Amino acid sequence: MTTAGTVAVDGHPVTGRPAAINSTKMFSDELLHIDWDATTAAIAAKTAADVERALQKEHCDVDDFMALISPAATPYIERMARLSRRYTEERFGRTMSLFIPLYLTNSCTNSCVYCGFHVGNHMKRTILSPEEMVSEYQAIKKLGPFENLLIVTGENPAKAGVNYLAKALDLAKPYFSNLKIEVMPLSTEDYATLTHHGLNGVICFQETYHRENYKLYHPRGMKSNFEWRVNGFDRMGQAGVHSIGMGVLIGLEREWRTDLTLMAYHLRYLQKHYWRTKYSVNFPRMCPAENGGFEPNCIMTDRELAQLTFAMRIFDHDVDISYSTRERADFRDHMATLGVTTMSAGSRTEPGGYSTHPDALEQFEVTDPRSVPAVTEGLRRVGVEPVWKDWDGSFDSLRLAEAGKTVSETN
Ligand code: SF4
Q1: Is residue 8 part of a domain?
Q2: CA-to-CA distance for 375 and 144, rounded, in angstroms?
Q3: Separation of 282 CA from ligand 1 center, angstroms?
Q4: Which of 19, 128, 256, 270 could form a disulfide with 132 if both were Cys (CB 3.0 to 4.6 A apart)?
Q5: What pLDDT, on a 0 to 100 scale, did the predictor assign at position 400?
Q6: Which atom of ligand 1 is nearest to the CA of 119?
Q7: Are 132 and 356 within 8 A, CB to CB?
């Protein structure tokens, strides 16, 4: 549905005339033409007929995704689950790619109101030294045969900037075949530099696509710049990063369906522009900050998260859907058969938590504290085979050659 004065792009209500999609535009330009309130109204107006139509399509657009996450789709959740399972098994088999996050530092210059690591929180800050990084890598390898490592930092470019990340990647390379980072948004050149140090993927959460409210949640520091963050995904694509992960922080905006719809629109935009890239999505549900005391504006139920997961799989058969240890063990095991394709296991969310500083303050509370063997046993019990390695370091030279082409094509 569109409201007066709006037109639809890829099924999405927009105001005015949308900018033509070409390589000189960034996603923030597209976003200027998408109206938050019209999108919210369009989702609320979805009917059973819209849901039926979406379920019968092989290839859904954003308008169908809106129907599938809408309240009108709640009576269809069993049918959505069956369809989601079918698409997932066709594309991924009954497998689960496992990764482990490593926090290198909790030093941060930002003041996100929902995070215990914010700059105003007087706490001990840790920045792992190169020797400590290696000790963490070795400790992780003792937990399980992990090949997928996610390196996480707060945002402190002066103390943990690109050179620090390059060093961390160089040291990690002998231990892991697939290296991803979840750090501050970087320039295209910096992403390209890090690919030469073994970087294979970048995960970045936009947190929210609500431009005005974004500033309330991120009042100071580098992260307060909405455009820099949202256009970071274009820069990753232009740098030829092989894998891009995205997500919004569910609990910031009361209208979570609207935020997820804008993310779906962003995903489609990126897929059109950077089609060589692999994409993943994550649906983090907000936990109270350790020291911030931020009260979420909505609490997403398990049933709503399941519906969202099924909707995303029906919308996009190829996207990796990732669940972290924020979710309960029983829920993760259940969803492992119904659409989720990537999971973290054995996670510690404090810097140096595997060996150096096991008692430091966590960024968020882990809800699935099972050991790595217990996670893999749980997966096998529901008929899902854990996969440790889905990328080999020998692909890196091929990827770098492709990256060179991508940069020249987009310039
Ligand atoms: S969410 Fe990230 S950027 Fe924001 S305060 Fe926490 S660590 Fe820093």
Answers
A1: no
A2: 11
A3: 17
A4: 128
A5: 64
A6: 5
A7: yes
